[in-house]
Amino acid sequence: MAQLLEGARKLGWVLFNAFLRFIFVFINNCVAIPSYCLYCILLQPLRIMDSRYFWHIEGIMFKWMLAMVSLWGWVAGYTVMEWGDDVRPLSEEEAMVIVNHQATGDVCTLMMCLQDKGTVVRKMMWLMDHVFKYTNFGLVSLIHGDFFIRQGKAYRDKQLIYLKDHLDRYYRSRDRKWIVLFPEGGFLRKRRETSQAFAKKNSLPPLTHVTLPRLGATQVILKTLGPQQENGSLGKEASTMHPSQSGSKPKGLQWVVDVTIAYPKARPMDIQTWIFGYRPPTVTHVHYRVYPIKEVPVETKPLTDWLYQRFVEKEDLLAHFYETGAFPPPKGQKEAVSRAMTLDPVRLCLIQSLAFASGYLWYSVLQYFYCCLF
């Protein structure tokens, strides 16, 4: 009987905590998202006079929005441990980021772990499924200039044309630096069986922890944003030096950042968990590997082989992680070193306070006009 009472007490506390978090997130969305949109509307004259400065301000507000999403997870004890290359020195360089995709929580994880990477978040463009356009955050992404891609063979060719047009119109004009995509084109649990059947049919390595990536969006991005092509590869003017050693910044993409996300016990975290916090405190592990753009081919067959090889490497990384609890060390090293990603709680609280203050300001303004009219 005592055990039943203790179990009921714990369940009650979990439900009460989830309810409080839901109220907090709900109010957060009702306050922060409208404020972001209203400020962007009011700043339209600035966009006409000096669009670069407008997108600078919008980028700061966008980073604050993503910081609030990070806060939801941080309060629940969801943190990130980073492995591999340090990408912070690349924050002012142009890069394409390829990420494995397991659940909706992958996006929240990226929002958190990129918060301390300089200007990356505010100068970033996301490629995401078109369904996200109809979520509460969809309007923010539309204003920011993210691209919503529709999956399926019936839409594939047109979507790639739309993507190229979108990049031509918005990437440079809004001073974007990093572009993030999930080449697998869907969640692991949904695509694994199809991917394994395709691999068997075409004598490709069978993958369990990732799926075979799709080429289309990656190739469009490389051809549209990369430097001048030479002999099927991206131009040699793309620097292979470390950004801190490079005196000049070549035009176009300079790096490919290969990101591998691993969850303890291979249990992906979805956005519902991130919001309600019903999973115990969890450390998500993120591995980075950086490739100079000149090493990346752009022609279909070589790029397909190169991209497949990256996901075979992801498979090996994840298999090692799930077996040992750590990623393998880089070549030439005996031990892999991890880095705890930390968020500044003072900054997070300040951003949250500004959001609520902004919401109260808009409420007061609207109430004043309502009283004047009625």
UniProtKB/TrEMBL annotation:
Q: Which UniProt keywords apply?
A: Acyltransferase, Lipid biosynthesis, Lipid metabolism, Membrane, Phospholipid biosynthesis, Phospholipid metabolism, Transferase, Transmembrane, Transmembrane helix
Enumerate the Gene Ontology biological process terms: phosphatidylinositol acyl-chain remodeling; phospholipid biosynthetic process
GO annotation, cellular component aspect:
endoplasmic reticulum
For this protein, the record's InterPro entries field holds: Acyltransf_C, Plipid/glycerol_acylTrfase
What Gene Ontology terms describe what this protein does at the molecular function level? acyltransferase activity
Query: Domain Phospholipid/glycerol acyltransferase, which positions?
Result: 95-215
Query: What Pfam families does the record tag this protein with?
Result: Acyltransf_C (PF16076), Acyltransferase (PF01553)
Q: Where are the transmembrane segments?
A: 20-43, 64-81, 131-149, 348-370
What SMART domains would the database entry show?
PlsC (SM00563)
Task: Kindly indicate whether the keyword Membrane belongs to this entry.
Answer: yes
Family indicated by similarity: Belongs to the 1-acyl-sn-glycerol-3-phosphate acyltransferase family.
Protein name per the record: Phospholipid/glycerol acyltransferase domain-containing protein
